[in-house]
Amino acid sequence: FIKGAGEFVLLKRTQTEHEYIVNVKSDVTILENTNYFPGWKVLANNNELLINYKNKKNLGKITFGLKKGIYKISVIYTKTPIIKMAESVSLLSLLSGVVFLLIKLFSVSKKKK
Prior knowledge:
By secondary structure, the protein is of the alpha+beta class. The protein is built from 1 helix and 7 strands. A 5-stranded antiparallel β-sheet has the order 1-2-7-4-5, with no helix packed on it. β4 (40-44) and β5 form a beta hairpin. The longest helix has 32 residues, at 81-112. The chain is rod-shaped and about 80 Å long. It starts with 5 loop residues before the first strand and ends with a helix.
């Protein structure tokens, strides 16, 4: 908590998913110690929150605000469309390379006979 008061319990923390239960006792600003990159989302009780990564004291880190209450917070990384497209291009390139090598391998083996 960088502003306000509350308590939290960590439920899960992986590279792409962080989950907490948060008991907010007053309006708060929370610092999620994760570097922001497009694709990160913060959900409070399954409702998406605005992320502030331009906070001068914590530039580049995910920060967000909450009102008094109890919340299940999920901070998740979802792949952006450009990342999905880049993965598809990489997979297509890999498959094309394998097909090319197989064609060359079969054409060399036929010439030896």
